[in-house]
Amino acid sequence: MSKSIKLAILGLGTVGTGVVNLINDNLDELKRRSGCNIMISAVGTRRQRDDIDPAITQSDDLMAIAASDDVDIVIEVIGGTTLAKDIITHAIRHGKHVVTANKALLAEHGNEIFALAEENKVHVAYEAAVAGGIPIIKVMREALAANKVNWLAGIINGTGNFIMTEMRDKGRTFDDVLAEAQALGYAEADPTFDVEGIDAAHKLALLASIAFGIPLQFDKVYCEGITGITLQDVNYAEELGYRIKHVGFAVRHQDDNNIASGIELRVHPTLIPEDKLLANVNGVKNAVLVDSHPLGQTLYYGDGAGAGATASAVMADVMDLVRVLCTNEQGHHVPHLAFIPEELSDTPILDAEQMTTGYYLRVHAYDSPGVLANITRILSEAGINIDAILQKPAHKAGQVPVIILTLPVVESQMNSAIAKIEALDTITDKVVRIRLDEL
Amino acid sequence: MSKSIKLAILGLGTVGTGVVNLINDNLDELKRRSGCNIMISAVGTRRQRDDIDPAITQSDDLMAIAASDDVDIVIEVIGGTTLAKDIITHAIRHGKHVVTANKALLAEHGNEIFALAEENKVHVAYEAAVAGGIPIIKVMREALAANKVNWLAGIINGTGNFIMTEMRDKGRTFDDVLAEAQALGYAEADPTFDVEGIDAAHKLALLASIAFGIPLQFDKVYCEGITGITLQDVNYAEELGYRIKHVGFAVRHQDDNNIASGIELRVHPTLIPEDKLLANVNGVKNAVLVDSHPLGQTLYYGDGAGAGATASAVMADVMDLVRVLCTNEQGHHVPHLAFIPEELSDTPILDAEQMTTGYYLRVHAYDSPGVLANITRILSEAGINIDAILQKPAHKAGQVPVIILTLPVVESQMNSAIAKIEALDTITDKVVRIRLDEL
């Protein structure tokens, strides 16, 4: 008789129900792959559910389940950063391994939670916290374990990518698509976390930590959402051969001796050349592109959300634990943040002003002679190289938008150049700027 | 002082040298990620190398190194299926863990080698054997461990993909591109394994085994290379919105109770719609698309060959082992073929005649009235549905090629329909057929 591993699933929303369904559908597969009996011993839910096997304990006392002797692994899928934190802490203190999909909690309190887990010799696994069903945590922590990561770029918010895709494909406005995304259940009633980039910033903080071996530093992620992107800019970008995507970037800067000197953490809309794979990740799909040495670039693509994808990631973590627990050994061998805790480095996170990207600029000017000459002179004096210019016919009487793409430049330089452009008499509006990454 | 793990690298060709370079470049990263001292204690090479640290033993007695007390992990990168097999077997019998990039050896003798490893309680790791630096073995065995795999489709031979890409992009002939690939070092002097699909079939046998939990069955892979693909067909496919790629497919068939009833293993050129990601994997890049339940489709993309990519995969396997060995525990917890040995299933591998795909047909006929009617009648009587037809103007006096795309059909049905078409008086040549997968 093979050994049994008992799971508690705390929360029976979309993800929790997905996990229950996965176990029902694939129980045979799970046993064949682990040689072990995997069973749900308890579910934590506010109201009793008729569709759950009566042999499984149902209770609304989540803290009791988290500490129960009848549980080996606690799966936290209630979300939020308050009750979830208490439950996970309680489970860890009672020697339970924890699997969670909670990106906000880990991005904000992960350093503390992982330290507690080390202390109690348990593992807190979080594959489902980033990019849904794409196994990017395992890939970064294990598959790329021999590489030095140079940078990564990820489309890691499905709702945001759905909105950007619909705007481009169907010429719809931001507000229109957002309303549909809410109706379809992709976006929350309060879409702030998605459209302001906070959800992506949570995920980026986790990815950056395991890429570079630095503590979680969510508060240092530069974060810009997609609410300011207009159809006009989407169309101009298209005309120039680019697509606007909402992307999270983590970039390692190094000195002349290859020592990390700073890390760029930024989440923002950016123009990407249309023939790059990331530009062709559409709808609610996610993808992460990683550039590392000596491997080069690899890309990981799939569903970034949804019951099935998230359940797949949760249960992959469970399977990792089961495969170890079934051999009577002591736990997981992969460090929480990919690097051993005493080796996490204090490489500084760069300020937004120090970040380097190309730019898309949309400048509105009175159509007077010399305006373009003035703009290009200012850019040139600031050491900013122009890659492309598109001047469209006037769409308001006397006003013409000028679109300029620049080569990469440090943000502080661009800031001062834009201030000078906006000070010109002939400029009628604020300069619209969107970053641009050639990838 | 942290524990030391000693590596032996057997073979100092491109890959072996890549591994040495990786360790030199990233030693600090390896220690930070494992908390462990990783060192090369010996290299096996036919001739003494000056560029190797003199502290490292160099020897041409590979068998002695494989059994040395001064070695924890043996890295086999000599290739081939004879000496490599003896060395790996010898290392296993002496209790060494083995890391290998040898797809041919494992596809042909893996069942025996893995059984010996189980018996000796060591692990034989082979991430580098499939798709170079793309961590597809880890993904399939661990990240997708809770999923039921429905099918996978992979561009898993870089040389073949380079040839197909150049033919399409630059209108070059097969022979012309092959000569360049050989000059660039992508293709061997004897390119048979690449262009006849054998290398891809080796890799597909490994992928299918870990996808479905079946023993390795290389000899049952249906295998067709790219030597028959002409520029003409590449161009017709393009005109119809498809690209021709050389793809390996592993497809699970199931009965009404969702029980696996058969498995399709096939490697061949196929038409793919141009807007699919796999159609846009170009040059020497590899990619594997996996469809599984409940995860859905995920894609893994990167360099399928080269010193850096292969070394990355070899050392990822080493890191997995190091992380376990450093904690004084007994070994690797992931089954060699993803499923525990006693759970491997004997689901039959289907004959080529039972496989189902769409088809691209190129039929040359005298331009006489009624020829198209005859062809479509034959297809219709065979129950084959036509998806598209392209009839080009005559390029030889009196002859017109007719291009037909069909919906999926069982191969045996297509065989008999083609026999009837070829028997028509008006048909002047063999019918050219290439498979087509909408993906």
TrEMBL record, chains A, B:
InterPro entries per UniProt: ACT-like_dom_sf (IPR045865), ACT_dom (IPR002912), Asp/hSer_DH_NAD-bd (IPR005106), HDH (IPR016204), HDH_cat (IPR001342), HDH_CS (IPR019811), NAD(P)-bd_dom_sf (IPR036291)
SUPFAM superfamilies: ACT-like, Glyceraldehyde-3-phosphate dehydrogenase-like, C-terminal domain, NAD(P)-binding Rossmann-fold domains
Pfam families: ACT, Homoserine_dh, NAD_binding_3
Enzyme Commission numbers on file: 1.1.1.3
Keyword presence, Amino-acid biosynthesis: yes
Residue ranges annotated for the ACT domain, each copy included: 360-439
Keywords: Amino-acid biosynthesis, Methionine biosynthesis, NADP, Oxidoreductase, Threonine biosynthesis
Family: Belongs to the homoserine dehydrogenase family.
Protein name (database record): Homoserine dehydrogenase
